[in-house]
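User: Some background: our group keeps a shared notebook of sequences we're curious about, and every so often someone picks one and asks for a predicted structure to add to the entry. Today it's my turn. The entry only has the sequence so far, pasted here. Could you supply the structure so I can complete it?
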Amino acid sequence: MLDEFVFISLERKVFAAMNKLNVALLFGGVSSEHEVSRVSASTIARALKPSSYHLYTVGITRDGRWLYYSGPIEKMADGSWEQDPSCVPCMISPDRSDHGLVLCRHDGTWAVLPMDVVIPALHGKNGEDGTIQGLLELAGIPYVGCGVLASAVCMDKAVANTLMDAAGIDRCAWDWASRHECADFDALEARLAEKLRYPIFVKPANAGSSVGISKAANKAELEKAIQVALAEDNKVVFERFVQGQEVECAVIGNEVCVSTRPGEILASEAFYTYEDKYVLGTSRTVIPAHLSEEVLDRVKAQAEKAYRALGCEGLARVDFFVENGDTILLNEINTLPGFTSISMYPKLMEDAGKPIDQLLDELIGLALKRAGVRHG
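Assistant: Of course. Here's the predicted structure to add to the notebook entry:
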C-alpha cells in the first residue's frame, strides 16, 4: 500500500508537469438522493477529458464514511464500489496548507493529495445544502457550483420562496409549517384549505428529486402527506396545485449568467415523481417546450432573474409551471442538478451546443475563476 501512495504522489507530479488539473469528484452522501448521486458521478467521471484532468473519486457512504476509490467507474453507479479493495479512508482537510485529500494508509500513516478543484456531485442534504460548500471554503479549494449561502437558500424551499416573493418572481400560492405547527393539524388544515384549496402539494422544505412529495385531495390525505414530508425534514411546504406544463431551464455562469431555452417534462404519473424520474424511466422530455417563442423567451428571462436573485453561481436548473400556455410560475431552483442519462440539465445544455465534456470544462473554469485561480 505504501508503494501505491508513492506512485500516486509521483503520478500527481507528472500530471502537473503535463498541465493537467487534479479533480476530486465527490459522490454518494448521507442523503435520500444517495443513489442518484452515484449515477450522476459515474456520468461525470466518464465525461471528464483524460487529456485535461486527473480524476480522484471519493465516495461517501450512507453512514458518512469517506473513502478514496480508484476502482472501475461501473461500480460507482450500482453501489458495489464500497466493497472494492481499492477503497482507502480519506477526508478533505480544512487546513489550507494541505489543500486537498488526506488519505489514511493501512499502516496508520497519512498521505496528502493536493486538489485543484472539487466537483461535489452530491444531491440533497449534506451536499446540496451548503454543508460541503462550507468545508471547501474553509479548505480554500475551488469547487463547482453555488456557494454556501445560495446552496443553503435554494435547498430550503420555505426560505427560497420567501426570497422569490420579495424579488417579485411569480410563483404559485404557497405556505409552510414547522413540525411543531403540524402537531395542531386541525388548525393548520383549516388555514391551508382556505388559502390554497384542495388539491394541495405537500413537500419537505429540504429535499430534492421529488423525495417526500405528495398530492393531497382532502383532509385525510393531507394528514398522511404531512407525515411523509416530516420523515424527510422538520419543515413542510404547501403549494397550490397548478394544472400546467412543467418546464425547466439550465442556467450557467457566475456574475454573468445565461439560460438555455426551456425543455418540457411529459410525466407519466400525476406529477413528476422520484419513481417516474429514476425507476420507471417512463417520463419524456421535449426541447424546446411546447410554448410560443415569446413565452419561451419570458421563461428564460425569469430563470436568469431567479438565478441572480438567489445568488447562484456555476450552475443551477430552474423549474417552472406554465398555466394556459402563458402564465409563468417558478417552482424551484436546484443548485446541483442531476447528471444522469435522463437528467434535464445536461440534455438542455447539449441542445444548446454544449456536450457534456465541454460543459464540465466550462463549469470547472467558472469554479477556478470564482476562486481567482488561473490555469493553462
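Suggested note for the entry: The radius of gyration is 21 Å. Residues 293-309 form the longest helix (17 residues).
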